[in-house]
Amino acid sequence: MATQQFKAESKRLLEMMINSIYSQREVFLRELISNASDAIDKIYYKALTDESLTFNQDEYYIKVVPNKEARTLSIVDTGIGMTKEDLETNLGTIAKSGSLQFKTENEAKDGHDIIGQFGVGFYAAFMVADEVTVVSKALGSEEAYMWHSKGVDGYTITPAEKDTVGTEITLKIKENVEDDQYDEFLEEYTLKSIIKKYSDFIRYPIKMDVSGQRPKEDNEEELESYVEEQTVNSMVPIWRKNKAELTDEDYVNFYQEKHYGFDQPLKHIHISVDGTVRYQSILYIPENMPFDYYSKEYEKGLELYSNGVLIMNKCSDLLPDHFSFVKGMVDSEDLSLNISREMLQHDRQLKFIAKNISKKIKNELKSLMKNDREKYETFYKAFGRQLKYGVYSEFGANKEMLQDLIMFYSSKEKKLVSLDEYISRMPEEQKYIYYASGESIERIDKLPQTEVVSEKGYEILYFTEDIDEFAIKMLMSYKEKEFKSVSSGDLGIESEENDENVESEQEENKELFDYMKSILSDKVKDIRLSKRLKTHPVCLSTEGEVTIEMEKILSAMPDNQNVKADKVLEINRNHEVFLSLKHAFETDKEKAALYTNLLYNQALLIEGLPISDPVEFTNNMCKVMV
Ligand code: ADP
Ligand code: MG
Description:
Elements: H1 10-20, H2 27-49, E1 62-67, E2 72-77, H3 84-92, H4 98-105, E3 129-137, E4 144-149, E5 155-160, E6 166-173, H5 188-199, E7 206-215, E8 223-231, H6 248-257, E9 265-274, E10 278-286, E11 302-306, E12 309-315, E13 327-332, H7 348-371, H8 373-392, H9 399-402, E14 407-410, E15 416-418, H10 419-424, E16 433-437, H11 441-445, H12 451-455, E17 460-463, H13 466-475, E18 477-478, E19 481-485, H14 496-508, H15 510-520, E20 526-529, E21 538-543, H16 548-556, E22 566-571, H17 576-587, H18 589-607, H19 614-625
Parallel strand pairs: 1-7, 11-13, 16-17, 16-19, 20-22
Antiparallel strand pairs: 1-2, 2-6, 3-4, 3-6, 4-5, 7-8, 9-10, 10-13, 11-12, 14-15, 14-17, 18-19, 21-22
The structure holds adenosine-5'-diphosphate and magnesium ion.
C-alpha cells in the first residue's frame, strides 16, 4: 500500500504559530534580526570557499527603520537574499528552515554560528503586523521578487524592483486595540532597547537612524534637530574576546551595564571551554549582599545565550543554591532549544555546564581565601551563611565541596579561621574540634563552659548563627576530627586526678544531689559536680544530640515540636557557693531548696534561656538578701 503524506492544515498551523509559541511579542524583532544575521553569515561562509566572492566586513549590516506616518517597520539586510524558489519554500512552508539546510550542507566548513533551525521564527512578525512584505534579491541573481501576505489567507509572489542583493522585510504594524498597544514597535527608544536586550551580540552592525537635538555650530544658544545613523548593538560579546585583551575595568563595566548589581564585583571568572560541550561564561562574585538576598523574592540564575542571542534572563538550573549569589552569563552554541527558543529541549548540556561552573566557582573562592584573605572575608561576611546552608541542605550532599570554604570566628586570634587552619595548629594530643554556641561573640567569650578548654590552650570556634551547629552536625567531622561542643558531657580532656576527685566527692554528697534532683525534678536530667568549671559557680551542659542552642532555634520555629535538650546542671566544687549549699542541706532544707532553684535559674540566664517564672526568681533573690 502506498504511504499517504500528511497534509498540514497550514492556516490552523500558522494561527497556532502566531498566537501560542512565544510568550512575549517583542521577540518578533529578535527572530527577524537573527534571520538577517544568518543571511549575512551565509555570504561569509560562501566567501570562504568561493574565490570570486570577497567578504568586505563594512558592506554588511542590518538596518531597522520605523516609519510612524506609514505605520511600518522595516528590517533591511545585505545578506544572501532569496530567489523566487527560496521565497516559495522557506517563507511559504511553515517549519521549513533554509538555514538548517544550509548548516547541514556546510557542516564541514564550521557554519555553527547560524542561528535558524526550526523554520518558524519568521512568522513571529504576524504577532505585531497584519501585513508582511518581503522584497529580496538573491546573490548571483538579476531579478528581485516580492513576497506578500496578510497572514492566514496565504501569500503572493510577484516580480519586484531592487538594486542591491539582500532582503527588506516590511511590517505593517497592527492598530492599537484596547488592551493591546502596538505603537511602541514604532518608537525609536523601544526598538533600541529590544535590540539591546536580545540581539546585542549579533556579529554584524544593527543600524538605526536616531534623532536627537544638539547646539547649533554657529550659535551654541540654539538647538537644532538632527538624524544620525547609529549602530545599536555591541556586536562582539566581551566573553568571546581574548582574556589577555581585557582589563578589570572591562569586566566591571560589563557587570554594571548588565545591571547584575549596583556594587562593584569582588571578583570575576571568565571561562571558555572548547570540549564536548562548547561554552563561554563570565561569572561574578558580588561584593555586597542584594537587599532581598535571604528572602523568598530573590531569584538565582545566570543569563543564558545561544550563539550570542539571549534565550533566558535567569536560568536557575545553571547555579546550585549554595552559589546563588553568583551573577553572570553563559553562552553556548551547543544547546538544544525548543521551538520558541525560550526553553531548552533537554538539559544534558546544561547539567554539564552547571557542574563545570560550580567547580570553577569553588576553586576561585578557595584561591581567593588563600591569596586575598581580606577580599574573601568581605565575601564571607555577605554570603558565608549561604555556604553553611549549603553544607546542611540536601542531606549534606555538597558538604565535601563546601567544607573548605566555611569559616568561623575563633577564640585564639579573635578572627575568622577555616577548618583547615584550625586543624593545622591543633596541639597533637587534642582530640576534637571544639566549639561554643551563643548569641554573640561577646557572650560566648564569657561562657563558663569554655573555661577548661581554653585553659588547656585549645582553640574554640564561636558559633553565632542559627545554621552553624546544624551545618557542623551534618559535617560530623573534618579531617577525621570530630566536632565537640564545650557544653557536651565528655570533653575528651584528660585530667585524671581532678576527675577522680570530682567523682569521689560526688559520691560523698549523694544525698545532697538526690535532694536537689527532687527539687528540680523534670527540669534537668542530672545534677553533678563539674569537671570543666574553674571559677564560675554553675553551668548547664547537655547529653545527647540536641544542644541548648539547637533547642533555642527549634523552639523559635513556627511548627516547634517542643524539642528540649537533655540538660545537666553542673556545680563547681571549688566555689564557695558549694560550701553554702552543703551547709544549708545539713541545717536548713528549705534554704537548700531555695539555693538549688537560684543556681538553676542562674545557669539558664547564662545560657540565654528564658526563666519560667521571673517573679519567683526575683522574690527568691530577695529572700537571700534579707
Ligand atoms: P529559521 O530561521 O529557524 O530557519 P525562519 O522562519 O525564521 O526559520 O526562516 C525561514 C527561512 O527563511 C530561513 O531558514 C531562511 O532560509 C529564510 N529567510 C528568512 N529570512 C531571511 C532573510 N532575511 N534573508 C534570507 N533568507 C531568509
Ligand atoms: Mg529564524
